[in-house]
Amino acid sequence: MPTPYCSKPTSRRTTKPIKPCCGASKSLAHRPSPCGSAESTPAKVIPELLPDFTLATLEGPPRALSSFDHPSLIVNFWATWCAPCRREIPLLRQLRTERGARGVEVVGVAVDFREDVLKYARDIGLDYPLLIGEEDGVAAADLFGVSTAFPFTIFADAQRRIVAVKIGELHADEAAFILDHVEKLNSGQLTIEAARPLIRDEIKRLDALRSAGEKS
User: Which terminus of the chain is less hemmed in, N or C, by CB atoms within 10 Å?
Assistant: First the structure.
């Protein structure tokens, strides 16, 4: 069974592989509340609104997360050394291609050495926007209350409310369900108070089905 997420580095000198975490992926789709981790470190709090930060881009000049003004935003924290992170890149590219016309944008936040990210992005032809940081990338990740694991993915609506946080590898069925509900939020068909528990419960259900299938 592939490890669904990897330990997050804490400084520039530890931006290379650390022992992978164990356990199932997690979804946090609710009002801000303590966020558990794979290593039982002290809980943090998920913010209500998408925090802003500025990091270097793939092209070089820095860019703020707030400069992406698409109605639906997917922010994916990853690293080149993280196998689950690499596995979900094709899905992220697909989501941007298929849902871009509906206002979805994907922003990858690579917490890694810049030269490694540049080489990997060139090698695979990565074509969605990237923000890149080492210690400043770790600091950006910490703003989201997710303290120990990569990848993790943030889904935000047009008001930049955090609708869901997926810790661990993102799957197509999860992404589709979350994005459908983000669209309903943006169109006024659903409230944030209703959306978050719906997403949380569905991700738990999908995780359970996946785990049962892997064990059978």
Answer: C
Residue 79 lies in a domain: yes
Number of domains in the chain: 1
User: Which pTM was predicted?
Assistant: 0.84
The residue among 125, 182, 154 whose CA lies nearest residue 65 is: 154
Say how far apart CA 197 and CA 200 lie, in whole Å.
5
Q: Which domain holds residue 17?
A: 6-215
Q: What is the pLDDT of residues 65-95, one digit of tens each?
A: 999 999 999 999 999 999 999 999 999 999 9
For residue 1, what are its two tokens?
A: 């069974």
Residue 187 pLDDT grade (very low, low, confident, very high; cuts 50, 70, 90): very high
Burial of residue 11, with CB atoms counted within 10 A of its CB: 0-12 exposed, 13-18 middle, 19 or more buried: exposed
Does the residue 1 lie in any domain? Answer: no
Do residues 145 and 45 make contact, with C-beta atoms less than 8 angstroms apart? yes
pLDDT average, residue stretch 60-67:
97
Which parts of the chain are beta strand (E)?
Answer: 6-7, 26-28, 34-35, 44-45, 54-57, 62-64, 72-78, 104-111, 130-133, 149-150, 152-156, 162-167
Residue 83 resides in a domain: yes
Q: Residue 68 belongs to a domain with what CATH number?
A: 3.40.30.10
pLDDT digits (tens, 9 = 90+) for 98-108: 999 999 999 99
